[in-house]
Amino acid sequence: MPRKATKKRTIAAPRRRPSNLARAQRAIETLSPAEYKKLLDWLHLDSDDEWDQQMKADAAAGRFESFRQEIRRARAAGELQEMPF
User: Fold this and answer.
1) Which pTM was predicted?
2) Do residues 40 and 46 touch, judged by C-beta distance below 8 A?
């Protein structure tokens, strides 16, 4: 007995929801300047955070002096290149 022709079943790919980051980026793009400023204040991007404070303390304590000396030596020897941007 011949087989009946059957419809080929296809499985639809699940719809991907935008990531939280993508949704946040779109939401940020719609903020007014005042709202954007409030967001930046909330994120503390305009003030020193713990990392910034530690870097300043390390610099004041001379912990980067060896780097500064190496940069000065490389500059005097003509080994530094301009950044491409």
Assistant:
1) 0.39
2) yes
- 34 belongs to a structural domain: yes
Q: Is 8 inside any structural domain?
A: no
pLDDT digits 0-9 by tens, 11-33: 766 677 778 999 999 999 999 99
Residue 55 lies in a domain: yes
| Full domain range(s) for residue 52 | 21-76
Q: Is residue 47 situated within a structural domain?
A: yes
Q: Among 31, 47, 48, 30, which residue's Cα sits nearest to residue 39?
A: 31
What's the Cα-to-Cα distance from 66 to each of 24, 61, 63, 69, 82, rounded to whole Å?
A: 42, 12, 7, 5, 21
Q: Pull the structure tokens for residue 63.
A: 């912990």
Interacting residues of 56 by C-beta distance below 8 A, sequence separation 6+: 48
